[in-house]
Design goal:
Shape: globular
Distance between the termini: 47 Å
Radius of gyration: 13 Å
Helix content: 55-70%
Strand order of the largest sheet: 1-2
Largest sheet: 2 strands, antiparallel
Length: about 100
Protein backbone atom coordinates (compact mmCIF):
# COMPACT_ATOMS: atom_id res chain seq x y z
CA UNK A 1 0.00 0.00 0.00
CA UNK A 2 2.81 2.44 0.84
CA UNK A 3 4.42 1.85 -2.54
CA UNK A 4 1.19 2.91 -4.26
CA UNK A 5 1.05 6.07 -2.14
CA UNK A 6 4.71 6.82 -2.84
CA UNK A 7 4.18 6.35 -6.58
CA UNK A 8 1.16 8.67 -6.45
CA UNK A 9 3.17 11.38 -4.70
CA UNK A 10 6.10 11.02 -7.10
CA UNK A 11 3.75 11.22 -10.08
CA UNK A 12 2.11 14.36 -8.68
CA UNK A 13 5.48 16.11 -8.21
CA UNK A 14 6.45 15.09 -11.74
CA UNK A 15 3.18 16.52 -13.07
CA UNK A 16 3.75 19.77 -11.13
CA UNK A 17 7.24 20.09 -12.64
CA UNK A 18 5.88 19.59 -16.16
CA UNK A 19 3.01 22.05 -15.68
CA UNK A 20 5.29 24.67 -14.15
CA UNK A 21 7.80 24.44 -16.99
CA UNK A 22 5.09 24.45 -19.65
CA UNK A 23 3.39 27.46 -18.06
CA UNK A 24 6.60 29.48 -17.77
CA UNK A 25 7.57 28.74 -21.36
CA UNK A 26 4.10 29.55 -22.70
CA UNK A 27 4.03 32.87 -20.81
CA UNK A 28 7.42 33.78 -22.26
CA UNK A 29 9.32 33.84 -18.97
CA UNK A 30 12.89 34.87 -19.82
CA UNK A 31 15.52 32.16 -19.97
CA UNK A 32 15.26 28.43 -20.30
CA UNK A 33 13.20 26.29 -17.93
CA UNK A 34 14.34 22.75 -18.75
CA UNK A 35 16.12 22.62 -15.39
CA UNK A 36 12.69 22.45 -13.69
CA UNK A 37 11.96 19.11 -15.33
CA UNK A 38 15.57 17.91 -15.37
CA UNK A 39 15.73 18.00 -11.57
CA UNK A 40 14.16 15.37 -9.32
CA UNK A 41 12.66 15.42 -5.86
CA UNK A 42 10.27 17.64 -3.93
CA UNK A 43 12.40 20.79 -4.22
CA UNK A 44 13.44 22.76 -7.25
CA UNK A 45 16.04 25.39 -7.88
CA UNK A 46 14.26 28.05 -9.93
CA UNK A 47 17.23 30.11 -11.06
CA UNK A 48 15.52 33.28 -9.86
CA UNK A 49 17.62 36.06 -8.37
CA UNK A 50 17.37 37.17 -4.76
CA UNK A 51 15.41 40.35 -5.67
CA UNK A 52 12.99 38.28 -7.76
CA UNK A 53 12.48 35.85 -4.89
CA UNK A 54 11.97 38.69 -2.43
CA UNK A 55 9.34 40.18 -4.73
CA UNK A 56 7.55 36.82 -4.97
CA UNK A 57 7.47 36.67 -1.18
CA UNK A 58 6.46 40.27 -0.48
CA UNK A 59 4.13 41.02 -3.38
CA UNK A 60 2.69 37.64 -4.29
CA UNK A 61 2.92 35.69 -1.03
CA UNK A 62 4.80 32.86 -2.70
CA UNK A 63 7.25 31.57 -0.14
CA UNK A 64 10.58 30.22 -1.26
CA UNK A 65 14.21 30.57 -0.27
CA UNK A 66 15.87 33.76 -1.50
CA UNK A 67 18.39 31.47 -3.19
CA UNK A 68 15.58 30.41 -5.55
CA UNK A 69 14.88 27.02 -4.00
CA UNK A 70 11.18 26.17 -3.71
CA UNK A 71 9.17 23.26 -2.39
CA UNK A 72 7.04 21.80 -5.14
CA UNK A 73 4.77 20.09 -2.63
CA UNK A 74 2.80 23.34 -2.24
CA UNK A 75 2.03 23.56 -5.96
CA UNK A 76 -0.88 21.92 -7.75
CA UNK A 77 -2.90 22.23 -10.95
CA UNK A 78 -5.05 24.96 -9.42
CA UNK A 79 -2.31 27.32 -8.21
CA UNK A 80 0.34 26.86 -10.90
CA UNK A 81 -1.19 29.58 -13.13
CA UNK A 82 -0.85 32.06 -10.25
CA UNK A 83 2.72 30.90 -9.64
CA UNK A 84 3.60 31.31 -13.32
CA UNK A 85 2.04 34.78 -13.58
CA UNK A 86 3.82 35.85 -10.38
CA UNK A 87 7.20 34.59 -11.56
CA UNK A 88 6.84 36.37 -14.90
CA UNK A 89 5.81 39.61 -13.16
CA UNK A 90 8.71 39.37 -10.70
CA UNK A 91 11.20 38.72 -13.49
CA UNK A 92 9.94 41.75 -15.43
CA UNK A 93 10.01 43.96 -12.32
CA UNK A 94 13.46 42.80 -11.19
CA UNK A 95 15.43 41.89 -14.34
Amino acid sequence: AWKVELKGMADRIHEVRNLLRKGLEEKGAPGTWNHVTDQIGMFSFTGLTQPQCERLIKEHHIYLMTTGRISLAGLNKNNIPYMVDSVVESMKSCP
